[in-house]
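Input set for joint prediction.
Command: fold jointly, output tokens.
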Amino acid sequence: MTATQERPSDAIEKEIGRDRRRKEDQRLITGRTRWTDNIVLPGMLHLAMVRSPFAHATITSIETADAKASTNVVDVLTGADFGAELGAIINAWPITPDQVTPAHSPMPADRVAFAGEIVAVVIARTAAEARDAAELVEVEYDELPAALDLKRSAADEVLAHPDLGTNKSALWVFDSAEAGTGGNVDEAIAKARTDGIVIEREYRQQRLIPAFMEPRSVVVDPTGEQYTMWSATQIPHIVRFALAATTGVPESKIRVIAPDVGGGFGGKLQVTPEEWIAWAVGRRLGKPVKYTETRSESLMSAHHGRDQWQKLTLAAEKDGTVTGLKVELLADLGAYVAIVGGGVPVLGAFMFNSIYKFPAYHFAVQTVLTNKAWTDAYRGAGRPEATYAIERLMSELAAELGVDPLEVREKNWIKHEEFPFTTVAGLEYDSGNYEAATAKAKEMFGYDELRAEQMARRASGDTVQLGIGISTFTEMCGLAPSRVLGQLDYGAGGWEHAEVRMLATGTVEVITGASAHGQGHETAFSQIVADRLGVPFESVEVLHGDTQVSHKGLDTYGSRSLVVGGEALVKAADKVVEKAKPIAAHLLEASVDDIEFSQGRFSVRGTDQGLAITDIAGAVFAAHNLPDGVEPSIDSEATYDPVNFNYPHGTHLCAMEVDTETGAVKMRKYVCVDDIGNIVNPLIVSGQVHGGLVQGIAQALWEEAVYDDSGTLVSGSFVDYLLPTAADTISFDIGHTTTPSLTNTLGTKGVGEAGTIASTPAVVNAVVDAVRHLGVDDIQMPCTPERVWKAINGPGSGGSTEGAAMPHFESGGAAGNQEQPGTASTDGAGS
Amino acid sequence: MTRISLTVDGASVSDDVEPRLLLVQYLRERLGKTGTVIGCDTSNCGACTVHLDGTSVKSCNVLAVQADGAEVTTIEGLARTVGGDDGLHPVQEAFRECHGLQCGFCTPGMIMQSVDLLKNNPKPTEEEIRLGLEGNLCRCTGYHNIVKAVQHASGQAEVTA
Amino acid sequence: MIPAAFDYVAPTTVEDALAALAQYGDEAKIIAGGQSLLPVLRMRLNAPEWIIDLGRIESLRGVRDDGDAIVIGAMTPHVVVGSDPLVAEHASLVAKAVEHLADAQVRHRGTFGGALAHADPAGDLGAPALALGAEFVIAGSGGTRTVAADDFFVDLFETAIGEDEILTEVRIPKRTGWGATYEKFVRVAHQWPIVAVAATVRVEGQAGDRVFAEARIGLTNMGSTPLRARAVEDALVGQPVTDDAVRTAAALAADGTNPPSDLNGDADYRRHLATVLTRRAVLDAAGA
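tokens >
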């Protein structure tokens, strides 16, 4: 080991900010992938689930003899066969101390509470034989009345769980007067009723399905010293914790691996009955087992998202200055309180006031149990609902005032010189510049020209009208400061863990507790470490998603991976440098105080003597010549707990064309300027924005989980649950302004959910704007052509969705769960 | 059981299969070609798209027995059809270059359909690309960069972040 | 995702296929391109004991000229039909309908006869076949018979093809020089049409003085079978090619229809759509 003389080039390009092509892609574009369903183990058995066709029923008998006698069937097991061995599905966030939480068995023995719930599992040598035998399981049910409509369920007309005596799970309230963060909202509204403006609206957040592309799959191998579970999950660490907590297996005996995971969007932020059943079957039989769901099963039984009624009251002075906001929500939990469950609307509680300076705010959410699929996080989780409400209201206020909707927003938003700003919801926004983002967006959009075209079309009575929709959103992301989560009674912290291992031959292993499922962490995290340690991007290997490798972590959701996980990584890398410094000094025969670290190299101040950090790693491996008392390792780890959320914001502008003869809507242009702080990889950011936009647009225009009046999911396949295709979407114009976040070293803000949160109200505002002159002030989502046409041609917001599917396949519909296509409408009717 | 013989990614294979076995299941379970994936059960998503005798099909919507005697190309054998030196077909390379994928689950089908589209229309307009991919669902990318990738592969787009 | 077990036979002649059908009777199901049947089998909505695959019968493929008609073999894939010059010249309405039928992969695999025999009222080929007065050639043990389009579609997923018969080809009378448009209304591209209108018209006269000499219009998904909009056809003949004249005639498009109500729209909305789409289809077909 000799001190090298040559200095590294000063022209080394910073990795952060570069549009690096992704490291992940090579295997994904060549099919060299490791999806859970690809895993095959010796002697592996296959599971098929028998699911309830009824929304609510007592199980009176399960006859398994024929199924057990079927070819190559190993066993058929029911909830009664297992008992406590199955464990339980947990809710990690009881939002109030007295929350009513039904017990949630992975496979109930006595009563089913939604259509799709598992009542028996068939284990066979092949998946085909398991499915064949599942058809032979005879289950007898006594059907019970089902609680389906959200409003009626909130009134306890029919009980989803009769033993609980109520469907009302929890009432969570925030009041700015009580919290000391603002005034009394009822007083503000009363005042506005006499000499101001009151906007009162009721909006529907329809039920959505995350619809990740990779169906969920789980493999359990109980044959090693540790039980191993591979699962298509966003949260391997939390799954491991919950398995230990509920099944009696010591945590140290459990290894959970999330291999390549094909999308999540919150939909794989769950501990699932399917995982728990596979776990129990594997343990009981002592054999590896696999279960992979079909798409129909996924749509029917994986958790859904959104599903709220929002009663909103906005008070303002006559000049448009807002004075109060009152939010009263009903949120549909579905049949059980899922892992985050009622916490989803609570995550929105702090965001209804958004970027506006409301002096008084009141928020209340009543969570409600029904006999439908459980709901939980879906991209944005609480914040899209909040953003939708406030951005629709601000446009309604502008319409009431007869001013441009941007004008009323600007009048009320926090000016850039007012940061840091403590909001009426009690959050401290660290930074932002709404003026800058809006100015840039308007210019990119051609705002004035499109407004002129809109006026011309109105004047000429054109069949196709043009509308412009605005959404000036913010969100809180980077879940989350553990202390805040504790105050909210969440069952875990919000820290993240990282480790940096300096390998002897000069490469670097990075271990993160975040668990990517498409985000590109391997690339972005490599860039961060390459800059921090001054090593080549290519030399960094990012490991994640396996609790035996990444032993500690809280996984990926809530736009937290970069802002929390990335910060943990920075801290771990900095520790490596600190540990290496005395060794470098020792090897360079200099004082530690004279050692500088820059671009991967320790040098002695004022000399040309230096050593690369990778050389130190080699020296530490040999350990032949270390200072006394220094351990032979510069590997480091760090666990980072954020002190605050961060607050990305942006201005989204959308132009929609509405065919007034058919109600068909067509996107003409979409511009967004997001301020997400410093950007690590602009290519990855653009992808997150594009994808987020389309998911938000899809809520506005296409997607809706619809149940019929017997509780059957009518939109139970991709034939009826409408995801947009390339042919239904457009290319977007995206831009950025940059106000670095002050709450983390890198100055970054979350980006994973921004597009989804912002775009939904931009689109609906545009559709409504296109036809407002025809007497329309609301169209219920999704804005189907039928709803748009009806809104134009009659009162109301377009009515409900018919609870029936087209019968495309000759035995009555595309999905296997459509035996009784009903004729009633969804609870979306609000009847 | 029915005996089938076919060529998959250049290799001759022959197996006894149940007639009910889908081509995609044959590829994944019998041949270990797990690059081709299953995303739905109604043939909407296109994740399982392969080339059957040179044209794109959804391999969940073909029985293995119907492919008897055929030539099948999957994502795993795509590069060899152009003798890709670095192991990539130009369309694969374009998807990486343009960040046309995130989770990557729809990607094999998306790439196979894009190859078919460009074979029939080497210089497609944006609208033709979008219509040509209407049988493939993606939940991550919003399609923006997929469209760009196809434009790039056809020599029509600059790559910018 | 895994069909129930079945046995499989792939005859190479129509005779052998008919023999197989006679042997296995109602326990058998014919597979053509399989693009509608296989999803049904995968979801176990149907579980036939035998599958008879027509895919190896070469004589059922192709498009040929037969004097005053063109003949499309039942097993001709959509993609072939859509790009066939005879179809484009003499039955352009079919070409227009095929262009956006399902998606590219399905058009590669799905067949003209298979889609018609499946008789999904939301299928894209029924209305054009009806509008063009197609004739369906059906083979049985006693020979072949020809069924007119008006008699072919019986009900939801039900046609005049008997249990022991096979659709072998479709004869479409030439309508050379007619204008044609298939106006399809969907919410997302991969959807079956909520309503679609197949219109083909023959226009006479010089620019500025053109009148409808003949009009044939079919409706997709406006009832349990494809339907003819005869009231509109009758009202158009002799009328000038003007927006007003067509609007008046198209207002009759929903007469006698019985459209479904479902997720995508109720019956009233579909009736309304039919009138708007008919007007647009007719005007476009007339080159107006």
